[in-house]
Specification:
Mean pLDDT of chain A: 90
Mean pLDDT of chain B: 87
Structural class of chain B: mainly alpha
Oligomer: heterodimer
Radius of gyration of chain B: 24 Å
Number of helices of chain A: 10
Number of helices of chain B: 13
Order of helices and strands of chain B: HHHHHHHHHHHHH
Largest interface: A-B, 38 and 46 residues
Shape of chain B: globular
Order of helices and strands of chain A: HHHHHHHHHH
Helix content of chain B: over 70%
Shape of chain A: elongated
Distance between the termini of chain B: 11 Å
Strand content of chain A: under 5%
Low-confidence stretches of chain A: none
Structural class of chain A: mainly alpha
Chain lengths: 271, 315
């Protein structure tokens, strides 16, 4: 395993662990206010200090990890669930109007950055974590469709696919049984990258008030709350910021490491 | 090239038409009537009906859509429900902040990324390359709005070199305007510079392995001469594509950065419009952003095809 993959896996696992543990244990109740203990810097009792309501920041970071991971994970799920079949279908019907329709549809969705989609959704249904998931998820669809189609197109020219066609298998069956397993590595790597982008997007949406709403903690909103207090309590901004950076860095390193590990050409070059 | 351009132009028109349809009808299904919202819960039905008529909300949706698109094509975005002033003027005033900010960030990101990417590619595998790649890895992981807060903390609050936020306008002079947009532009440029530096490095590394680079060296050019005369120029094709795409992301990204620095740009306009249910402003700003993305992609496609003839023949 490469250094990138090891470091990335360790960082990402720590965040996932914090999120999972927060379901059964946090050092303090993340909603409990304790005004006399407000704005404490990190200390033995409150490892990451307290916020302006005296809430324990470590507990909020743990629960915030849950929010970030849940939003980014479901958004990646939406992207894969809709994008991959579309990409497979476009490749199977390459050169036809179906392919053209899917790809032009992709271009159109690409023209709507996730923030713009979130603005549209919020204008209709109001802000919330679900809307953030939908906004990021919609943006993920063309990403997975394009990458699947691109990889599948070259596979359709290969001899083993020709053999499957000669044996009478339909396009859909070939896509499912032969193309999909062969693009899986690529999808895992892209999934990791989109996951890290999802964490960043969720933080951005929560920061501008379009993501998770109180009392559910989210790293982006913790930063928004910290903004007016950053001059006298910089830890309020530093800690959630570091949580986002380490998570995204971990996932990116893991993505890079996985790409190297899963690419047979790179593996041969290493040995 | 003409055939390719016409085909892309047709695709552009279709994309804009569908995008405008999606935006209009998505906003139209929004629950709640803007007229009722503006007049409050105690408003009489006939007053609401009169305001609906005044705002043009009483005509069929499909007619309103065509009116909206037709007027927009003439530069008229309608009248704000909340401020009762032309949306075009509101957007134009805000664009004077958002557009220079995006362009400033684009220039900074290019100025940082080019030397960094070229330096890393020229020293592949050496400590200099590892440092640049490590920095770019960190750069893409840093949320720009958090970086913006850190810039404010260091350069505005502690060192007092810049203001912590706000924008007094361009009437005080170009330098004053640029000075107040500097921290936001740096915050916006950083992640894009990290991405661009990685693209530049990887494009250059691909080029450095090409036969024509070996030929250039065989002709007697030094490594540095070959890199600049043949490597960088050829690596510009993918890099320019990414720069084009980044502009749209910078325009959308400036919406968030404007919140950190309290800048009176498109971002603040759209968030105010959402909270006051000024839906015509929301749909106009969203359409403008999507229009910018589609137009930039179109321009990038044309530029790409002009440089690389293989693309023209492929489509």
């Amino acid at each position: 395993m490469s250094r990138n993959l090891t470091l990335g896996t360790i960082l990402s696992s720590l965040v996932v662990l914090a999120a999972l543990v927060s379901f059964v244990w946090t050092p303090f109740d993340y909603t409990a206010m304790n005004i006399p203990a407000k704005l404490q810097t990190p200390n033995a009792q409150h490892w990451f200090g307290t916020d302006h309501f005296g809430r324990d920041i470590f507990s909020m970071i743990m629960v915030g990890a849950r929010t970030s991971i849940a939003v980014a994970l479901v958004a990646v799920g939406i992207g894969i669930a809709l994008g991959v079949p579309l990409g497979l279908m476009a490749a199977a019907r390459r050169g036809t109007w179906t392919d053209e329709l899917i790809m032009r549809g992709n271009d159109l969705v690409f023209a709507f950055p996730s923030l713009v989609i979130a603005i549209l959704i919020t204008a209709i249904y109001g802000a919330g974590a679900i809307n953030a998931i939908i906004a990021i998820g919609i943006f993920n669809i063309p990403v997975f469709a394009r990458i699947t189609r691109g990889a599948a197109l070259s596979l359709w020219e290969r001899e083993f696919i020709l053999a499957a066609r000669v044996s009478g298998k339909s396009g859909a069956r070939i896509s499912l049984e032969h193309i999909l397993p062969n693009v899986m590595n690529l999808l895992i790597v892209q999934g990791t990258i989109q996951f890290s982008l999802g964490i960043l997007a969720e933080a951005g949406l929560s920061y501008v008030g379009l993501g998770a709403q109180p009392p559910l903690p989210s790293w982006g909103r913790m930063l928004a709350d910290a903004q007016t207090m950053v001059s006298f309590a910089p830890h309020l901004a530093l800690i959630p910021g570091m949580a986002i950076i380490l998570t995204v860095l971990g996932l990116n390193l893991m993505g890079d490491g996985l790409r190297d590990y899963l690419d047979p050409k790179l593996r041969v070059a290493r040995t | 090239m003409l055939r390719y351009s016409l085909k892309r132009l047709l695709s552009l028109i279709i994309s804009l038409a569908i995008a405008s349809l999606v935006i209009f009808f998505v906003i139209e299904v929004a629950p709640g009537d803007p007229a009722s919202f503006m007049l409050g819960i105690n408003a009489q039905p006939d007053t609401i009906a009169a305001l609906r008529a005044e705002l043009g909300l009483d005509v069929p949706k499909i007619q309103r859509y065509f009116d909206w698109v037709g007027n927009m094509a003439m530069g008229d975005f309608g009248t704000s429900y909340t401020y009762r002033t032309p949306v075009t003027g509101m957007i134009r005033d805000r664009l004077w902040v958002s557009l220079p900010l995006s362009l400033y960030a684009l220039a900074l990101s290019t100025l940082i990324a080019f030397p960094a990417g070229i330096y890393a590619a020229a020293r592949r595998g050496k400590p200099g390359d590892l440092v640049v790649m490590g920095a770019t890895q960190l750069g893409v992981a840093i949320p720009n709005f958090w970086f913006a807060m850190m810039l404010v903390l260091v350069f505005a609050i502690n060192l007092r070199w810049f203001g912590a936020g706000g924008f007094s306008g361009w009437q005080d002079g170009l330098w004053v305007g640029i000075h107040s947009l500097t921290l936001p532009a740096i915050a916006l440029a950083l992640p894009q510079a990290a991405i661009l530096a990685r693209v530049m490095r990887s494009a250059l590394l691909d080029i450095l392995g090409e036969d024509f680079m070996r030929t250039a060296r065989a002709k007697g050019l030094t490594r540095r001469q070959a890199l600049w005369r043949h490597g960088v120029r050829n690596a510009m094709i993918p890099v320019l594509t990414i720069i084009g795409l980044q502009f749209s992301f910078l325009l959308a990204g400036s919406i968030i950065i404007e919140q950190v620095f309290y800048l009176p740009g498109l971002g603040r306009l759209v968030f105010q419009a959402i909270s006051s249910r000024d839906l015509i402003v929301v749909e106009s700003v969203v359409m403008l952003l999507v229009f910018a993305v589609i137009m930039v992609n179109f321009a990038v496609d044309l530029a790409y095809a002009a440089v690389d003839p293989r693309l023209r023949s492929r489509t």
